[in-house]
Amino acid sequence: MNEIRIVSATGILGSGFREETLQRAMRLEPHFIGADSGSTDPGPHYLGSGETLFSDSAYKRDLRLILLAARAAKVPAIIGSACTSGSDSQLERLVGIAREIARKEKLSFKLAAIHSEQNKEYLKRKLGEGKITPLANAPEFDDQVIDRSAHIVGMAGIEPFVEALERGAEVVIAGRSSDTSIFSAMPVMRGLNPATVWHAAKILECGAACVVMRKYPDCMFATVRDDHFIVEPPNPEYRCDPASIASHNLYENSTPYELVEPSGVLNTFAAKYEALSERAVRVSGSTFTPAARYTIKLEGAELAGYQSILIGSVRDPIILRQFDSWLAGLTRAAQDRIAAVFGADIEGKYRLDVRVFGRNATMGVLESETAIGHEVGLLFQVTADTQQRATALIKSVSHIAVHYPVPEWTGLITSIAYPYSPAEIARGPSYRFNMNHVVEPASPLEMFSIDYQRVG
Amino acid sequence: MAKLWQVTKLIRSKNAGPFELTFDVIFKDHDTYEKVRDAKVISAEWFARTYRLTPEVVSVIHYDAASAIKITIPRPAISGDIDDTDVFGGQQYGPLVDLEVP
Asked: For residue A134, is the peptide bond before it cis, meaning its omega torsion is within 30 degrees of 0?
């Protein structure tokens, strides 16, 4: 029977898994080990700045165990979305870590590095040809957006992975790629039904997230056949049931029934989830519709400005009883003071925002609860074109805020509690995701170059 | 009348990418799910009223396989942008928790 057995090491590389769980999974003779290493969840900072969500030590710990297990079993290790956003510098960072592990552990392998960062001139040409189109809720997109972007990556489908595997890569590290492509590439390459494969990949991509009660990050295991797959956690403390597997389709997805990939759409509407045991679930019945046009999703981040912030809180019932007018007056006074110090032309060169904890700091415009309690927290935030300017402005806000009066008290009051000295905190650059669009490349490999390196 | 949290195993919110926000209400048992689903307590209209939106932008999906109701809306601010309040979108489900259900 044609089957592919897959171990997913963890939901995101660097978050960890148990060494003994991976060893247990390896005894089931997987055809490869996969792991996703990225996400847009922690926000635009990682794509914008090139920093990584986890420390090098955390990546090293997880990648070392994966590479040791994969080389011992002589099966490929496939890692996607290197170091959070999968830009070129983040890809190089993870490749560097892999090389260092290989040196220390005396491993040798053929490594493929798949580049996902996009050329700006290429994208402008595609835009001019009408080959870039928006997805849901997308912001405006033009040549200037492309120019302003610190980094732009394309989310690879299975094709670059398949290419690397066909050329004999034993370790594949990719820049930005869809989470599911990491797990779908080999089984699709071996001819298994794409509907079964993509559904299995969706369940595997978050590691142990699909178990009934996830207590810590860990590995997941699936056996994929043509018309069904079986998912069973390799950790004996964990179990899956039909509801936990079906529920996983909800996660981070706008609909549980569809998963859009570059090459087509997985539809799980008719899927059947059956318990095979107390711990294992058999899944069948999904369908896959090949896309009429092959598209690659873009992710970009641009600098939104530099920020300095100020954190404080208010406890005085007299101030809290007139909180809205007090805060509005304070904000106006701070803006007037800024204009007096920096000149009228400072107007339009900065933004002052205030977050009110205890009212709507969590939900913002979505909040309908208006009452406040016995204290509120305040976060003043200045955004400007340089860090120096942001910090200079927040210093003026800070002094106005700490002594802003109410009519009931006569004499100088100190109206905010600041927990820190200095009260002002420089936050550095702030980035913005600036596109939610897809490109139609001439071929699936056009946007992704692959380097092959002999390691060890 | 029970509260929604009492009949569910999980109520959560999360980004569905940086431009959309999605809510999952996963019920403890299928019968209660069907009862709440059919009573249409969690409708686009109710959700829009509660979250100060227009019903047209609210998508409500019934997912029988997991006894779950999913609601998806456009994010009011792009994840991590200057106006955003919740980068992961993880703390937006509060108003659902104490909703009274049949």
From this structure: no
pTM of the model: 0.95
Q: Is the pLDDT of residue A410 over 90?
A: yes
Contact B72 A254 (CB under 8 A): yes
A158 in Cβ contact with A298 (< 8 Å)? no
- For chain B, which residues lie within 8 Å of any Cβ of chain A, measuring from their own Cβ? 10, 14-20, 22, 24, 26, 50-53, 59, 61, 63, 65-68, 70, 72, 74-88, 91-92, 94-95
What does the longest C-alpha to C-alpha distance in chain B come to? Answer: 43
Going through A87-131 in order, the beta strands assigned E by DSSP cover 109-115
Give the contacts of A274 (CB within 8 A, at least 6 positions apart). A242, A281, A282, A283
Q: Which two tokens stand for residue A377?
A: 């927290």
Closest chain B residue to A379, measured at CA: B85
Inter-chain contact A250–B66, Cβ cutoff 8 Å? yes
Q: Is the pLDDT of residue B1 over 90?
A: no
Distance, in Å, from the CA atom of B100 to the CA atom of B98, rounded to the nearest integer, reads 6
| Inter-residue contact A417 to A315 (CB < 8 Å) | yes
| Buried-state track A189-209, b at ≥16 Cβ within 10 A, e below 16 | beebbbbbbbbbbbbbbbbbb
Q: CA A208, CA A229: separation in Å to the nearest integer?
A: 16
pLDDT in tens, A71-94: 999 999 999 999 999 999 999 999
Task: Tell me if B22 and A252 make a contact (CB, 8 A cut-off).
Answer: yes
A138 to each of A135, A284, B81, B99, how far by Cα in Å? 6, 34, 14, 32
Collect contacts of A250-253 with beta carbons under 8 A, ≥24 apart.
Answer: A250/B22, A250/B24, A250/B26, A250/B63, A250/B66, A250/B68, A250/B70, A251/A206, A251/A209, A251/B14, A251/B24, A252/A41, A252/B14, A252/B15, A252/B16, A252/B17, A252/B22, A253/B16, A253/B22
Cβ contact A84:A14 at 8 Å:
no
Pairing of strands A296-314, A281-284: unpaired
Give Cα A150 distance to the centre of its chain: 17
